[in-house]
């Protein structure tokens, strides 16, 4: 039931962003040149202590994100290119434009651009308010 509610919230947020053009209050966490994070939305939601954050994330060809987790759920929707996602406890999956993936709260994961062009995702997070969005896990081994 929680997953269904989270997905419904993510869809509603995506529609609001498309209608309003988004807001830019949230500052991106990653400063890597190969990964460009563009803040689209940060807003409180009806779940106490939670907020939604939505970013566009662009990956240069061959780039691997740091192994990390989030203090809440992530819905990754591939806008362009092909991205391989490795999520702890799950089999790796490669998604192309138009496909998406639900990443449970706290799951350690990473994404790799497996194509020859820039790949982009729309990342929607339903997270604990006031917590750091990215928690790096450099020594975690993924499948």
From TrEMBL:
Pfam families: Cupin_2. Residues 57-122 form the Cupin type-2 domain. This is Cupin domain-containing protein.
């Amino acid at each position: 039931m929680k997953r269904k509610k989270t997905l419904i919230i993510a869809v509603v947020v995506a529609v609001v962003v498309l209608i309003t053009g988004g807001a830019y209050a949230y500052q991106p966490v990653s400063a890597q040149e190969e990964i460009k994070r563009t803040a689209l939305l940060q807003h409180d939601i009806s779940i106490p202590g939670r907020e939604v954050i939505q970013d566009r994330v662009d990956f240069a060809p061959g780039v691997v994100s740091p192994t990390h987790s989030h203090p809440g759920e992530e819905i990754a929707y591939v806008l362009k290119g092909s991205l391989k996602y490795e999520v702890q406890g799950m089999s790796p999956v490669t998604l192309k434009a138009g496909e998406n993936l639900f990443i449970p709260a706290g799951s350690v994961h990473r994404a790799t651009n497996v194509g020859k062009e820039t790949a982009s995702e729309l990342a929607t997070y339903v997270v604990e308010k006031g917590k750091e969005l990215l928690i790096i896990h450099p020594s975690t081994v993924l499948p």
